[in-house]
Amino acid sequence: MPTISSQDPYSIIADVNARLRVLESRYSIMRERIFIINQNLIDHYRKLSQDIKSINSDIKEIKNNLFSIKETSKNLIKEMGFFAKKENLKVLEKYINMWNPLNYVTEEEVLELIKKHKRK
Question: Could you tell me the end-to-end alpha-carbon distance of the chain, in angstroms, rounded to an integer?
Fold first, then answer.
């Protein structure tokens, strides 16, 4: 490689100019790549933001549904406390069997019996 003093100034300037153009070209390519990377990052950020909003919305809906289910189950449990117990039903069954409502006569049957007794 020739020394700087042995080359003429025009060739040195041409060499520096060529190297500068190569560096500018590399810089331009790097700038374009960085721009593309930034665009991709922005797109990914927007998509992630939308996904996070959607997930938060779903979580809120699930929480509301869970709260509704809890309230409904509490109400069911409270209402089940008012149901008749097995022992109470057995007591009612005893009374019904003692009264035996099937042996009662209807008003029409009583009127027919009265009519029959009058005829006799």
Answer: 154
Torsion, Cα 104 109 115 120, to 10 degrees, reads -60
- The token duo for 66 is 């869970």
Q: Taking the CB of residue 7, how many other CB atoms lie within 10 A of it?
A: 13
CA trace torsion 95, 96, 99, 104 (10° rounding) = 160
The domain containing residue 26 runs over which residues?
Answer: 4-119
- pTM of the full structure: 0.54
36, 44 in Cβ contact below 8 A? no
- For the CA atoms of 80, 86, 92, 95, the dihedral, rounded to the nearest 10 degrees, stands at -170
Q: How far is CA 69 from the centre of its chain?
A: 14
pLDDT in tens, 28-68: 999 999 999 999 999 999 999 999 999 999 999 999 999 99
CA angle centred on 77, ends 66 and 81, rounded to 5°: 170
Domain count, the chain: 1
